[in-house]
Automatic annotation (TrEMBL):
Its EC number is 2.4.-.-. It comes from the Bacteria. Residues 7-170 form the Glycosyltransferase 2-like domain. The keyword Transferase applies. Belongs to the glycosyltransferase 2 family. It comes from Novosphingobium anseongense. Keywords: Glycosyltransferase, Transferase. This is Glycosyltransferase.
């Protein structure tokens, strides 16, 4: 397509399971002036065949097929190749509401001071049923002022597959940064917050899918550590100090964060932020998040919920780790607390 109004950008890696309804939901949009980039990031399942079959049916689809390089490289490649000034993100396991693009492009036209607009989401499971976990937290912020408050409060900022952004603005800050793998979107929003306005349309324009194999489930520890570091870098920039993460290709371990930020206590601060969020994460308790949890306790971290986590580890099939956590908790009890037993 020559000069489309929007580029829809979807990266897929072994996404055959949910791919077809995701593509069809984009093609069924009431706003039709778009090109649809679908990048197959070296899939080994039937992803390529599905994309090529759909491209043969609709000329707006522009397939990109190459070896696996990861999501950040895929997103940056699609930004580089996009022919439109507006880019709408979309994931291969979610579903767009029919008027999603129409409402977002209208918002961007009416609000030239906004560089990014997302939307609220309806959450679903692997079977298209409502997600059973009730979200009692705040919605994604509906204006920039609330967006800045949400940063400080640690509340959700944007639903990544629901966003539309101005291509030139994202290019001006260097696109997605590879060091923040699995939380590359949060880092980008925090970098953009100082040069443009960001918010979400306060109605659900996508159906956001939850399932065990998705990235946020499989890489919980890395994602949460990266998010905490991205927030620290945001406050460094806000204070007028250099961003020590700006040119990193990979984030260091938490034990090296004091040296990176040039002051003591940064690594401990990150561990204190991340540890409580790992207590219910099967992946986090099975990967290096468990060692982070033990170090957090050795640094005087709260025991709240920890004995229940011992039980949870047994249920997850990790009896050795359950025993290690129980020993760590028992060894840090006072003599009077030991006599009383675990809370």
């Amino acid at each position: 397509m020559a000069n489309p109004a929007i580029t829809v950008a979807m990266s897929v890696y072994n996404g055959e399971r949910f791919l077809l309804p995701a593509i069809e939901s984009v093609l069924a949009q009431t706003f039709t002036d778009f090109e649809f980039l679908i990048l197959d990031d070296g899939s080994r399942d039937g992803t390529r065949a599905t994309v090529e079959a759909m491209a043969a049916r609709d000329s707006r689809i522009r397939p990109i097929v190459r070896e696996n390089r990861g999501l950040v490289a895929s997103l940056n490649q699609m930004i580089d190749e996009a022919q439109a000034p507006l880019i709408a993100r979309m994931d291969a396991d979610d579903i767009c509401m029919p008027e999603r693009l129409a409402k977002q492009v209208a918002f961007m036209a009416e609000h030239p001071d906004y560089g990014v607009v997302g939307s609220w989401c309806d959450e679903i499971d692997a079977n298209d049923e409502p997600w059973p976990v009730t979200n009692t937290g705040p919605h994604h912020p509906a204006n920039h002022e609330d967006f800045l408050i949400a940063i400080d409060k640690g509340w959700p900022l944007l639903c990544h597959p629901a966003v539309m952004f101005r291509r030139d603005l994202v290019l001006s800050v260097g696109g997605y940064h590879g060091a923040f793998r699995h939380c590359e979107d949060l880092d980008l929003w925090l970098r953009l917050a100082s040069i443009t306005r960001l918010a979400s349309i306060p109605e659900p324009l996508i159906r956001y899918r939850h399932y065990d194999e998705q990235v946020s489930s499989r890489h919980a520890t890395e994602q949460q550590i990266g998010a905490a570091i991205a927030k620290l870098a945001y406050y460094e920039r806000l204070a007028g100090r250099p961003d020590p993460t700006e040119n990193l290709e990979r984030l260091p371990g938490t034990e090296n964060l004091d040296a990176l930020f040039g002051r003591e206590g940064v690594g401990r601060e990150v561990r204190a932020q991340v540890a409580p969020g790992l207590l219910y994460s099967k992946a986090g308790l099975r990967d290096h998040g468990f060692e982070l949890l033990l170090r957090y306790l050795s640094e005087g971290g709260s025991h709240s919920g920890m004995w229940r986590t011992v039980v949870r580890l047994v249920r997850f099939g990790e009896p050795a780790r359950a025993a290690r956590l129980a020993l760590r908790l028992a060894s840090s009890l006072t003599p009077s607390a030991q006599a009383a037993g675990p809370a």
